[in-house]
């Protein structure tokens, strides 16, 4: 079984994916794959330098993700170009991992699951949601100013539409214990559907 997890920025996708992982699911985090494998590949780094010059490279030779984000979230054409560069590489990493253990229970974090029409990759989809004010507060706690958080959130499908399209929804407005109980309930529901 493969479960795709999406939701708004700051809603708790990674927290929920971690809870599934603690309960025996194998986990793929698309953001981690991008950060640790895709953006570190020589081919991608060269393409970024050709496109943006040294302005997106850190002094240590790695991609300056903050500088890159500043460029792509301010310009939709640049964001689409970057997505066209990195998404096929992420999908290839997914295919490789899923093919290596096809019988495993997988949980895959996909921020743009519905935006990129990736529903067919998964047996089920899950949207992690929370109240907008809590979402913004969490992003500010991570050091993302409210203006930038709003700018990035505007590039994603509205949370209400993700909720509507998902097979399951988990609300992450309560306590950690409540969220764990919700994950346990969902695992039981998934088992009954297979």
Q: What does this protein structure show overall?
A:
- The protein is α/β, with parallel strands linked by helices and 194 residues long.
- It folds into two domains: 1-25 and 105-194, 3-Layer(aba) Sandwich (Rossmann fold), CATH 3.40.50; 36-103, no CATH class.
- 55% of the residues lie in helices and 12% in strands.
- It has helices at residues 13-22, 30-38, 42-52, 65-72, 76-100, 132-141, 146-153, 159-165, 176-193, and strands at 2-7, 26-29, 106-109, 124-129, 168-171.
- Strands 2-3-1-4-5 form a five-stranded parallel beta sheet, sandwiched between helices.
- The chain starts with a strand and ends with a helix.
CATH architecture of the largest domain: 3-Layer(aba) Sandwich
- Helix/strand structural class: alpha/beta
CATH superfamily of the largest domain: P-loop containing nucleotide triphosphate hydrolases
Find the count of extended strands (DSSP E, 2+ residues). Answer: 5
User: Which spans have pLDDT < 50 for at least 5 consecutive residues?
Assistant: none
Question: What gyration radius follows from the Cα positions, in whole Å?
Answer: 17 Å
CATH class of the largest domain: Alpha Beta
* CATH topology grouping of the largest domain: Rossmann fold
* Fraction of residues in helix: 40-55%
- How much of the sequence lies in strands comes to 5-15%
Question: Helix and strand string, N-terminal first?
Answer: EHEHHHHEEHHHEH
Measure the end-to-end span. 8 Å
Number of domains: 2
Number of helices: 9
Major β-sheet strand ordering: 2-3-1-4-5
Mean pLDDT across every amino acid position? 91
Which term fits the overall shape? globular
The major pleated sheet works out as: 5 strands, parallel
């Amino acid at each position: 079984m493969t479960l795709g997890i999406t939701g708004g920025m700051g809603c708790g996708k990674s927290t929920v994916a971690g809870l599934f992982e603690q309960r025996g699911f194998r986990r793929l985090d698309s953001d981690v794959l991008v950060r640790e494998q895709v953006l570190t590949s020589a081919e991608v780094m060269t393409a970024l330098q050709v496109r943006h010059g040294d302005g997106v490279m850190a002094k240590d030779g790695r991609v300056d993700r903050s500088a890159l984000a500043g460029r792509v979230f301010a310009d939709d054409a640049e964001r689409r170009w970057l997505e066209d560069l990195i998404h096929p590489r992420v999908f290839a990493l997914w295919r490789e991992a899923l093919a290596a253990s096809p019988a495993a229970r997988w949980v895959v974090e996909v921020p743009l699951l519905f935006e990129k029409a990736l529903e067919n990759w998964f047996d089920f989809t899950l949207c992690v949601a929370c109240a907008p004010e809590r979402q913004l507060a969490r992003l500010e706690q991570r050091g993302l100013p409210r203006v930038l958080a709003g700018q990035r959130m505007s590039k994603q499908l509205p949370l209400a539409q993700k909720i509507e399209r998902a097979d399951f929804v988990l609300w992450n407005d309560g306590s950690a214990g409540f969220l764990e109980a919700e994950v346990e309930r969902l695992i039981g529901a998934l088992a009954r559907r297979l």
